[in-house]
TrEMBL record:
Cross-referenced PANTHER family: CYSTEINE-RICH SECRETORY PROTEIN-RELATED
GO cellular component annotations of the record: extracellular region
Organism of origin: Rhododendron simsii (Sims's rhododendron)
Keywords: Pathogenesis-related protein, Plant defense
Protein name: SCP domain-containing protein
Source lineage: Eukaryota, Viridiplantae, Streptophyta, Embryophyta, Tracheophyta
Signal peptide: none
Start and end residues of each SCP domain: 5-95
Top-level taxon of the source organism: Eukaryota
């Protein structure tokens, strides 16, 4: 079991990531659904999230230049799961559109 303490990657990291924590049957498909549910919050015309809404997990998932993906799931304690996915090359680049 991991301690699931959220830590930033060290300097020089060349990928971006999505992170989620949940309980029970918190598996990859559930996390992808969670991140994909942000799609309505993304405004393609302005290339931004709706006011006070989150959409960065969705835009990273669909980022056209990110062609390599690595995900891991770690059990934190008897209840919680930590899931992270790393994207390479990184997405969510300021001033660029996801696709």
């Amino acid at each position: 079991m991991g301690d699931c303490a959220l830590r930033r990657s060290g300097g020089g990291v060349k990928y971006s990531k999505n992170i989620a924590i949940g309980s029970g049957d918190f598996i990859g498909a559930a996390v992808v659904g969670l991140w994909a549910s942000e799609k309505p919050n993304y405004n393609g015309n302005s290339n931004s999230c709706a006011a006070e809404r989150v959409c960065g997990h969705h835009t990273q998932m669909v980022w056209g230049n990110s062609v390599r993906l690595r995900c891991a799931r770690v059990q934190c304690d008897s209840v919680l799961w930590f899931i992270t996915c790393n994207y390479d090359p990184p997405g969510n680049c300021v001033g660029h559109r996801p696709y």
